From TrEMBL:
Gene3D superfamilies: MazG-like. This is NTP pyrophosphatase (Non-canonical NTP hydrolase). Keywords: Hydrolase. Residues 23-99 form the NTP pyrophosphohydrolase MazG-like domain. It comes from the Bacteria. PANTHER family: NUCLEOTIDE PYROPHOSPHOHYDROLASE. SUPFAM superfamilies: all-alpha NTP pyrophosphatases (SSF101386). GO terms for molecular function: hydrolase activity.
C-alpha cells in the first residue's frame, strides 16, 4: 500500500466509523499524545529508564501505527497529498545528503 492509498483508507474509515474528523487542533493534541506513548516505550525498552511491568505488554508497532493514523488524518483534513510531499522530501534529502552521512566520522 502506498501513502495515497493509506490516506484514502483512513478517509473511508472516518466516513464509515468515525462520523467526522476531529478538528485540526484536537488531532494535533492527539498526535502529541500518541508520540508520547511511543517515546515512553522507546525510553523504557531501549533507553536507560526501567520498564514498568505494565509497560512490558505495550506494542511499539501498534503505537507507531496510531501516530501514522493521526498524521494521515491531519493530511486529509488539511488537503495535503502526503505521497507527493513524502516523495518530494525523499528526493530533496537524497540530493542534499548524498555523501553527508558517509563522510560523518561519528557514524563510522
Amino acid at each position: 500500500m502506498n501513502i495515497q492509498d493509506a490516506q484514502k483508507q483512513v478517509d473511508d474509515w472516518i466516513k464509515n466509523h468515525g462520523v467526522r474528523y476531529f478538528n485540526e487542533l484536537t488531532n494535533m493534541a492527539q498526535l502529541t499524545e500518541e508520540v508520547g506513548e511511543v517515546a515512553r516505550i522507546i525510553a523504557r525498552r531501549y533507553g536507560e529508564q526501567s520498564e514498568k511491568e505494565s509497560d512490558k505488554q505495550k506494542d511499539l508497532g501498534e503505537e507507531l501505527a496510531d501516530v501514522v493514523f493521526v498524521v494521515l488524518c491531519l493530511a486529509n483534513q488539511t488537503g495535503v497529498n502526503l505521497q507527493e510531499a513524502f516523495d518530494k522530501k525523499l528526493d530533496l534529502k537524497t540530493k542534499r545528503d548524498h555523501d553527508r552521512h558517509h563522510n560523518n566520522e561519528k557514524l563510522k
